[in-house]
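User:
Note these tokens:
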Amino acid sequence: MQKISPFIWFVDNAEEAVNYYMTTFKNAKIVSEQRYDAESAKVSGRPEGSIMVMDFEIEGQSFQALNGGVVPGFERSSMVSFVVNCENQEELDSLWNKLTDGGQIQQCGWCVDKFGVTWQIIPRRLNELLADPDKAKAGRVMHAMLQMKKIIIADLEKAAQT
């Protein structure tokens, strides 16, 4: 068990979201689930027998999802996002297409899925190019990336060479 893991609050669709992530990522599994019993349902206003918490893993990273209902002050923020470092354009395209389906496309590889969770779908190659000791080359790559929504590795490589 990880010492620190993300905990994602959903109003009432945690199970739907977790099942969606199971089909979105190749290496994903549900670890456990807890359901509201009579006492916790009464306190929370959630239906007895419905999902309360689901523990799951994506690519070895542990997560928890909660059906917590609507609580003032508990709104989701893009100030927290999950970065997915992709090995190649095929992996990036697959995840981007799935996570943006019904969601929102943002700048520089960021997107918000249909459940309101913010992701950064980034190729590992971007970090390598941005860390290049040739500052002009890294600058060209940064400029190219800032023009993109979905990151295109070939366009980053082209910017690095010009």
Summary: The two ends are 46 Å apart (CA to CA).
